[in-house]
Amino acid sequence: MEVNDELVDKLANLARLEFGADEKASIKEDLRKMIGFIESLGQVDTTGIEPLLHMTGEVNVLRDDIVEGQITAAAALQNAPEHDRQFFLVPKVIRNS
Predict the structure, then answer these.
(1) Domain enclosing residue 20, as ranges
(2) What is the mean pLDDT of the chain?
(3) Closest to 85 measured CA to CA, from 97, 96, 94, 75
(4) Calpha distance 25→34 (Å, rounded)
(5) Mean pLDDT of 76-89
(6) Residue 67, C-beta contacts closer than 8 angstroms, at least 6 positions apart
(7) Is 88 helix (H, G, I), strand (E, B) or coil?
(8) Could you give the CA distance from residue 30 to residue 7 in angstroms, rounded to a whole number?
(9) Which among 1, 44, 9 has a CA at the least distance from the CA of 25?
(10) How many CB atoms lie within 10 A of CB 35?
(11) Is 55 inside a domain boundary?
(12) Is residue 35 part of a domain?
């Protein structure tokens, strides 16, 4: 794959990024190295190797969901900067346009 200014510009547009000339040259070199590494993986002999979906044979190793350590509403609100004895009061963050 050829790494040129057009490819860098396309990727920058997709990522909504802007690069200066110096940055673009550095990014082109980094992309060349990354693509070269990926292409070198194609030369590895994987005969007899099973594809992996997970790194181990373990699947869904999760702990049990146990409810513990509940506190009262009063205890939860005791250090709140602002509350109305039932809920936390926070500044409005959504404005009407």
Answers:
(1) 5-41
(2) 89
(3) 75
(4) 14
(5) 92
(6) none
(7) strand
(8) 13
(9) 9
(10) 14
(11) no
(12) yes
Whether residue 84 lies inside any domain: the answer is no
CA–CA dist 26, 21 (Å, integer)? 9
Euclidean distance between CA atoms 77 and 79, whole angstroms: 6
Structure tokens at 60: 């869904």
- Structure tokens that stand for 85 in this block: 């004895």
Q: What are the tokens at 37? A: 């590494």
CATH (domain of 29):
1.10.20
Q: What is the CA radius of gyration of the chain?
A: 27
Cβ burial 55-86 (10 Å sphere, 16+ → b, else e) = eeeeeeeeeeeeeeeeeeeeeebeeeeebeee
Backbone angles phi, psi at 80, to 5 degrees: -70, 135
Instruction: Say what percent of the chain tops pLDDT 90.
Output: 55
Cα 4 to Cα 9: distance, rounded to the nearest angstrom: 9
